[in-house]
Amino acid sequence: MLVATNPLISVTPGLMIWTIICFLIALWVMKRYAFGPIQRLIDERREQIRRSIEEADNARDEARRLLEEHRQLIGQARSEAEQILTEARRTRDSMEQRMREETELERQRRIEETKKEIQAETVRALEQIRSEVADLTLEATSRVVGEKLDSERDRQLIASAIESLDFSRLEEPV
Question: What is the pTM (predicted TM-score) of this model?
Answer without folding.
Answer: 0.41
